[in-house]
């Protein structure tokens, strides 16, 4: 019976994930096809962009599943369900989620360092090589090898370089030596004992016994405690390979998450302000824009005729007049193309439907801006809590639970009794970050410092720009998990789990003695280790202390970027109904896809 219940609970969680997966694939196909240029579309780049975007969204959907599974192991009264009463069963479910993270993160590494760079450079070399496919593949592989080398270096650093927090300055020499060997070998090195080699230093090539400090033991060499059985060399090697492999993957993903933090500060913070305000302000009237554009065309044509009258008698124009004439003719060309686009937009049924849905857009925009302000306040309180109650930089500003009232964390905890509102909310929060990131990239384009590389426009986005877009979203999704943890730390750690606290009180009446009472509490850092299960996502987020420190300061930068973006978005006027469709550097040929 317990096994059947375990299977049903797991199937429920993964069924929800499968449904979300199908929705994500459909969304990715529609989104890529919406922005993809019809003239430059290629099958390989399209498939790559759709798969990369789907992987990014699937990775973000795994966090709610992680929280759902650890929460569903317990009843609301704090006791484990029958199928989860066994530690081995709980471990299998946790390992399933952990393997899900490993698989998706490994695929992300493959996409970022191999697949996307190869496809990107393949299309970059397409025009220069005049259709020579072999030379295109050769040059693309040459550039991709550089990315592969970077990936290998990150994996080696994570596997073998000491990256944990160093011991305190007042530590004994024995503790410093112990720390060094633990880091270069394995975190299990001080827990693995063999009859021939104390402290399992044999795998590091150290055969002699090590004298510990007097502060740890009174005297004599260090011997294995009798409670720990000796392990075979094969088991020790297996544990070391597992630890080093996981550390390598975690360090590589954390490095990409750090880059994703920069993308979040740049694009997501701006998207959180520009998306709701654009919905509230709406677009300009297409009729008024056409009238204004017609007046501009007449004005430019009049200026052109005025310049051309200077050379009617056969005299050549001066260099200044020729330059002005060239600029005016280019401006006239853009205005005429703009007029064609406005005419198409006026006849488009989507424009009429958008006007009819105007009240709904305003309400949606107000909701989004309130959500953005809620996130900002929650993030500020969380960072303030870390600044006041954490151990500081050396610990990565890590705190267990919450010491200040966090509105979003309290909201998630309040929704726990009404299943499945809390899981729906955490899923909506995750997708909100992804959608606002897309909005930020859509409005800003893709930049490298002050250089604008690509524009993201409907039906006119180049394949390289779509690949860049998907890579940025992959990096943003990696950092989204830490952002959500910062917004609701206690809920992301334990979900809706509760535990039972036994207390004794003197019983009233004739019989003397104590009565035992059970009190239900929400899981936090004070809970017994065997009563609350930490999500796998939390363990990934705090693998390396210095990354947590950088993320902490990145949250402050995110708050500042959001406030700046909010001010800029408020000061800007309404968008054009054909925003981004007509640019001076476009060609007339590119209008064909709009006409048909």
Task: Please give a structural write-up.
The structure is a single chain. The chain is mainly alpha-helical and about 600 residues long. It is built from 17 helices and four strands. It has helices at about 1-35, 45-70, 85-125, 135-160, 175-185, 235-280, 285-310, 320-345, 350-355, 360-390, 405-415, 420-445, 465-485, 490-495, 535-540, 545-570, 590-595, and strands at about 445-450, 450-455, 500-505, 515-520. Helix 1 runs antiparallel to helix 2, helix 3 runs antiparallel to helix 13 and helix 7 (about 285-310) runs antiparallel to helix 8 (about 320-345). It has a two-stranded antiparallel sheet. A two-stranded antiparallel ribbon has the order 3-4.
Descriptors for this entry?
two-stranded antiparallel sheet; 4 strands; 64% helix
What's the layout of helices and strands?
Blueprint: H1 2-35, H2 43-71, H3 87-124, H4 133-160, H5 173-184, H6 233-281, H7 286-308, H8 319-347, H9 349-356, H10 358-389, H11 407-414, H12 421-444, E1 446-448, E2 451-454, H13 463-487, H14 489-494, E3 498-506, E4 514-522, H15 536-541, H16 545-571, H17 592-595
Antiparallel strand pairs: 1-2, 3-4
Beta-strand percent range: under 5%
**Inertia-based shape:** elongated
Distance between the termini: 62 Å
Total strand count, please? 4
Helix content: 55-70%
> Count the helices. How many?
17
Which structural class is indicated by helix and strand composition? mainly alpha
Pick out the low-confidence regions: 176-241, 587-596
Q: Give me the strand/helix succession.
A: HHHHHHHHHHHHEEHHEEHHH
Mean of residue pLDDT? 75
């Amino acid at each position: 019976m317990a096994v059947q219940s375990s299977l049903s609970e797991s199937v429920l969680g993964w069924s929800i994930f499968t449904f979300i997966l199908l929705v994500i694939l459909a969304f990715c196909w529609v989104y890529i096809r919406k922005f993809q240029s019809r003239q430059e579309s290629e099958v390989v780049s399209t498939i790559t962009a759709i798969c990369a975007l789907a992987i990014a969204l699937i990775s973000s959907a795994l966090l709610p599943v992680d929280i759902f599974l650890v929460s569903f192991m317990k009843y609301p009264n704090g006791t484990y369900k029958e199928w989860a009463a066994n530690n081995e069963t709980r471990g299998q479910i946790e390992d399933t989620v952990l393997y899900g993270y490993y698989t998706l993160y490994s695929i992300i590494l493959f996409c970022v360092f191999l697949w996307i760079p190869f496809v990107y450079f393949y299309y970059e070399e397409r025009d220069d090589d005049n259709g020579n496919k072999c030379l295109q593949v050769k040059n693309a592989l040459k550039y991709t090898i550089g990315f592969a080398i970077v990936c290998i270096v990150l994996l080696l650093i994570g596997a073998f370089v000491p990256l944990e927090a160093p011991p305190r300055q007042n530590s004994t020499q024995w503790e410093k030596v112990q720390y060094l060997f633990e880091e270069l070998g394995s975190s299990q090195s001080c827990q693995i004992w063999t009859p021939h080699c104390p402290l399992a230093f044999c795998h590091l090539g150290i055969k002699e016994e090590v004298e510990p400090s007097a502060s740890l033991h009174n005297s004599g060499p260090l011997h294995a405690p009798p409670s720990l059985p000796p392990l075979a060399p094969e088991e020790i090697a297996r544990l070391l390979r597992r630890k080093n492999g996981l550390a390598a993957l975690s360090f590589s993903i954390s490095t990409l998450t750090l880059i994703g933090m920069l993308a979040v500060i740049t694009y997501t913070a701006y998207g959180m302000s520009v998306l709701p305000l654009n919905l509230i302000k709406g677009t300009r009237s297409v009729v008024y824009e056409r009238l204004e554009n017609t007046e501009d065309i007449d004005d430019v044509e009049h200026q052109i005729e005025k310049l051309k009258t200077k050379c009617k008698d056969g005299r050549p124009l001066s260099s200044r007049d020729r330059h002005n004439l060239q600029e005016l003719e280019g401006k006239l060309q853009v205005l005429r193309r703009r007029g064609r686009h406005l005419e198409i937009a006026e006849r488009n049924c989507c424009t009429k439907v958008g006007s009819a849905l105007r009240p709904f857009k305003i309400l949606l925009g107000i909701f989004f801006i309130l959500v953005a302000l809620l996130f900002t306040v929650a993030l500020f309180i969380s960072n303030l809590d870390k600044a006041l109650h954490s151990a500081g930089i050396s610990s990565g500003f890590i705190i267990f639970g919450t010491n200040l009232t966090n509105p979003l964390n309290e909201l998630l905890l309040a929704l726990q009794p009404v299943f499945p509102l809390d899981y729906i909310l955490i899923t909506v929060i995750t997708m909100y970050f992804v959608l606002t990131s897309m909005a930020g990239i859509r409005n800003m384009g893709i930049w490298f410092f002050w250089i604008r590389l690509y524009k993201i426009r409907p039906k006119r986005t180049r394949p390289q720009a779509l690949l860049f877009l998907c890579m940025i979203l992959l990096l943003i999704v990696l950092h989204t998990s830490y952002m959500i943890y910062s917004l609701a730390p206690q809920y992301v750690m334990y979900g809706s789990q509760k535990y039972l606290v036994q207390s004794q009180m003197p019983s009233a009446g004739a019989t003397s003695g104590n009565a035992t009472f059970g009190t239900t509490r929400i899981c936090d850092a004070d809970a017994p280790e065997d009563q609350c299960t930490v999500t796998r996502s939390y363990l990934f987020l705090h693998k390396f202390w210095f990354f947590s420190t950088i993320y902490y300061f990145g949250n402050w930068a995110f708050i500042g970027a959001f406030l700046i973006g909010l001010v800029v978005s408020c000061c800007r006027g309404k968008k054009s109904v054909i925003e981004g469709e007509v640019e001076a550097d476009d060609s007339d040929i590119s209008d064909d896809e709009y006409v048909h």
